[in-house]
What does this fold into?
Amino acid sequence: MAFKENFITLGIETSCDETSVSVVKDGRKILSNTIFSQIKQHAKYGGVVPEIASRQHLEAISHVTQMALEEASIGFDDVDLVAVTQGPGLIGALLVGVSYAKGLAYALNKPLIGVNHIEGHIFANFLENDFTPPFLCLVVSGGHSHLVYVKDYGDYEVMGRTVDDAAGEAFDKVARALGLGYPGGPLIDKAAKEGNETAISFPIAQLKNGELNFSFSGIKTAVLNYLNHQRQKGLSIIIEDVAASFQKAVVDALVENTLKAAKVKKVKTIAVAGGVAANSRLRQELTERAASEFDVKFPPMILCTDNAAMIACTGYYRYLMGDRSDMTLTPYATLKPF
Ligand code: KG4
Ligand code: ZN
It folds into this structure.
């Protein structure tokens, strides 16, 4: 692959509840990564409201782009490539980013490239970092839980996946049941720090259809049953203990399968990607258990959850691979990454 020097990619991400624009040099060096979070606007509804998300993106996108350019000390004319999230995500939200990116690429007469958001999460590991494929990647976000062998840039083999809920989805649903609110993952992570993770024994994610797959709906149901049982019997519920015990059950399943897959492929490096990669217990447990055999990489916290730097990075590598989009680029809510 012929790398390009002093090549500026402008990344745009609007797949869910973060409007983000980033300027990345040579695919890996972040010059700016502006993230406008809509969490406050959605929190009172207990989750992301798609219509509100689209409107917020529309209001924010120009301003966030200006901020990203200013922070990077560049102008529109310095941009060599426009990369934008094409999917998966909320269709109305994606449409704002894709339309804006198309307008920008057309006006600047610069190439455009549509990026898969989940592939973007994997590439977040390359930012400000010099490691390269091959490696094993655990991809855990709000909608995806995959074990992926990354043979090379853009060359993937899925070794395991969830057969029902995604890991992040389980965190969000259990947080709601515990009355912790939205977004669930960080709130469970925080509550769990004050709890006893061996207080309640929830089943670890039962594996189905092949030993490297995950199933998280069983743990979620076990938590809901536990809460109902305690309430019906008038027994106390220690939210911190439930959060810690649930988190342990999820983390154990993730770590177990990740180590198994890494051994099968005999990789040297394990990387983690997606919002759940921000989980402190997962970071600690995987690092500890893998330490003797593997080098474990997590993106910095800000690059675990949604951001445009990872989209710019992926766009750069896809561009080097010869991929191009044109003015017919269309967002897809269910775009498959692998
Ligand atoms: O990757 P992401 O920002 O968006 C998607 O592409 O889905 O992931 C969001 C998910 C949510 O389910 C959120 O609860 C979870 O990542 N998450 C966490 C943590 N921070 C975010 N889950 C567990 N622990 C965390 N600290
Ligand atoms: Zn994401």
Notes: The longest strand covers residues 29-37.
